[in-house]
């Protein structure tokens, strides 16, 4: 269910607003609605500090420090972050200089080691020296007029020296673009020094990388500070008073009233206005279905405050979709093993509990579905007969007509899923006219189901009562659902009827994606067996093909769940539930336990 909210305004004295915010943060019940834009220097500084720590954590997390290193001691997390930031700036400066020196070295290597000071001294004594880079033709022409010395050939062009007792205009020579006042020997020395400096800096960063946990904890403190400063600076002001607005769950309203009496606040509590899109959504989900929170957090969606909580249906049907789209008991066993390993490794970590439990549920249902279909890593049916009886599947899903049976099941799921949305909508928002209109949609959906079955599976004639079901649904929709005062609704009504059939038919993707996964697995198995038929010594190639093929298939299956399994819930089902997912998740202003 979606927890009812109260809109509240907390009023305190201006000089007391920091202490009041501390109290509200300790309570952790108020979802803050900014009164004004927090455009202050304190807020900007807090944002910059958060950006800095996020940048440092992101950079250090990419490093792989040696196990022999010991973490930095004696530094606070903030000092450690600042030191790491300065070290990264130093590394960037060294790296930039090194790149410049390497480029200069590459330019001077074809010329060998020479001194610019010597050239300058010769020029002062009347012996003019020019370093040139030109084509063969240019070199030949200049050699006829002046004394030249070929140094090297580079990319079809000649590096050469021109020596003259008289000054030659530089525009008449192809002067080489070389770094001034730098010798090859000095550059090599500078590069060696810089490389040592970079190694020292890199080793220091590896040491800092050992303190990522401390930096992650510091990041949470910075985030809390930014939230605090943002909420403080977004408070309204009226003379000597300051006020903050937000939303509180109804169940927490009494606690807020008690704290207001204790702290001397003025408090205004109202019901949210109809159509207020800023009201946050707090879901109260039964314990056994709380895994659906992990799905919503992963997708980043939430129902609106005035919409319906579909978390239970979402979890039930996504579990079924996952099993059908992956479709292989062998893959399910792999997933289950990884989830059990994660559950042991992260035991007691509340942050991962729901996600791991969801993974265990999805893996288990995949194993069950794959066992019913006798699908294990795409193994050929001729080998399935050697497996235990309970692993050979059930006849409904293993007989020659199994494809038609699974297609039929897909349409049953479609009609059930979509009609439940309409019936549930009719019950939750009970209104005689509205509810009959929703039942009309349910009739239309089931009529679409029978048509889809006849078209794709039975390929026979429509039964007369199917037209009767269409007629009943159409009458209910026209009389009780269609808004005849809205031209847009009237115009879109025929497209809605067509769309309802497309929605039912789209559930065939559960069969198509699952079947394609089975064929991909089988194809890679056959490819690997072809190698062993050629020679038993190609067993390594066989293993590589199996690992690559099944790894690719698993990735495609999981992608199919994201593309198709999530879509059937968030688009087809949600459209019939008239759900827009326009929610703003409830995020109370609170302090951490530390």
* Largest sheet descriptor: 5 strands, antiparallel
Overall shape? extended
Return Rg in Å: 36 Å
Instruction: Give the terminus-to-terminus CA distance.
Output: 31 Å
Mean pLDDT: 90
Helix content: 55-70%
How would you characterize this protein structure?
The protein contains 20 helices and eight strands. It is of the alpha+beta class and 594 residues long. Strands 1, 2, 6, 7 and 8 form a five-stranded antiparallel sheet that branches. The protein has a three-stranded antiparallel sheet with strand order 3-5-4, with helices on both faces. Helix 3 runs antiparallel to helix 6 (184-209) and helix 15 (402-428) runs parallel beside helix 20 (539-576). The longest helix has 38 residues, at 539-576. The chain is extended, with a radius of gyration of 36 Å. It starts with a strand and ends in an 18-residue tail after the last helix. 26% of the residues are buried.
